[in-house]
Specification:
Largest sheet: 5 strands, parallel
Number of helices: 11
Structural class: alpha/beta
Number of strands: 5
Helix content: 40-55%
Strand content: 5-15%
CATH superfamily of one domain: HUPs
CATH topology of one domain: Rossmann fold
Amino acid sequence: MDSLFFIVSKIAWAFLSPSNIILILLILGSIFLLFNRTETAKTLLLPASLAGFIVLAFPIGDLLIQPLEQRFKSPETLPKDIDGIIVLGGGEDLKRSLSWGRPELGIGGDRYIGAKELANHYPKAPVIFTGGSGSMQLQNTKGEGSLARQLLTTLGIANKRLIIESLSRNTYENFKYTKKLLPARQGTYMLVTSAFHMPRAVGIANKQAIHVIPYPVDYRGNSDKLRKIDFDFFDHLKSLEPAWKEWIGLTVYYWTGKTSDWLPETTLQTSQ
């Protein structure tokens, strides 16, 4: 069932990605235009063009991602003791790492910076990385786990401190497989992942009865003060794509019972 969920989610996203939707409508509209189906072409091309212009002109994704990124904040004062640091995969660029034979960071590489910050603060705490390959085409590689070990040790975290889980393909499986590797089953763990992804991660951790303290990194949205019309399509997609995907993920995970709440607002530890 987990494999079916993984496959369906990847296929569905190909048709739900905002940029893909715009391109698909433009392509279909152009095809109908070639066959002189003018009215049908207009029905497809006009909304696609309008949506494309809006994304080009204004960072509309900021409005979608802001509630996610503001949901959890890092504690003002870090706890004195923890049982480990959980780092969710996603900061690596697996395809380019395999292409060039060296570990490459992706847009979510701040997850490694956050892991290093916490590793310095808690020099005896184990660092638990969880992440295999989230790509359907790259399931027979060593995955993100091998890259994570190289990157974390390069940052100066001792190899003996690392616990690597490299089978998981999505956030649900991150916690499903990591749960078995935790040094203290009822312990307290700092959780490092992208800020927009933190609500879903916390919801799954709560459902799995894993006590976590959020340590969000990798913010994609801009503050209200810096949000403006600037005609930068690619930059605007950096917030729109993950925000739209995350809202869909929160909804589907809640419907399928994989998370404790649709939009969690407290961790298991603080809610008790």
